[in-house]
Amino acid sequence: MPEEPCQLIRENSSLRQQQELNWASLQSFRTLAGRVLEELQKQYGDAEPPAPEGARAAGAPSPDAGRAVAASAAGAEPDAMQQAMADLENINAHLFSIEVLMERIFDVRVPDEVEQKFREVAGELAPDPLNADRLRLNRLLHQTPDLPDRG
Fold first, then answer.
1. For residue 146, is pLDDT > 90?
2. Would you say 66 and 77 are in contact if contact means Cβ atoms under 8 Å apart?
3. Measuring CA to CA, which residue among 81, 42, 20 is closest to residue 34?
4. Alpha helix positions (H), 12-148
5. Which of 23, 57, 79, 106 is the most buried (most CB within 10 A)?
6. pLDDT confidence of residue 4
């Protein structure tokens, strides 16, 4: 289950940490999706060898990605599997495009004052749930008994 957004903000409160977090997430998604596609292509066969990484121009998805695979399989696989493989090829192409765009955010360098502002805003958006003041307030709220309904 993915982490709650507030926790990701709280634990990665600087611009640099957010850049690295998003880069790592993208890389893990591409790696896993690429490996699954390779395994499916081995299992179900493919008409053309997979393109080397980064070979497609700016990651443009191929609309005919799964059709050649479906033709080579001679109907031995369900259409749903062929569609899933085509969709995975498109996902991988889109992820490559996103990766190319994300590389540009690593060129951004900000002064320490801006990084500090990131941390301040992160504290406002995602306050620490274990903050002493917050814990005291929660305890007080839970100690106040609800008034009984009188009807």
1. no
2. no
3. 42
4. 15-44, 67-72, 79-105, 112-125, 132-143
5. 23
6. 78
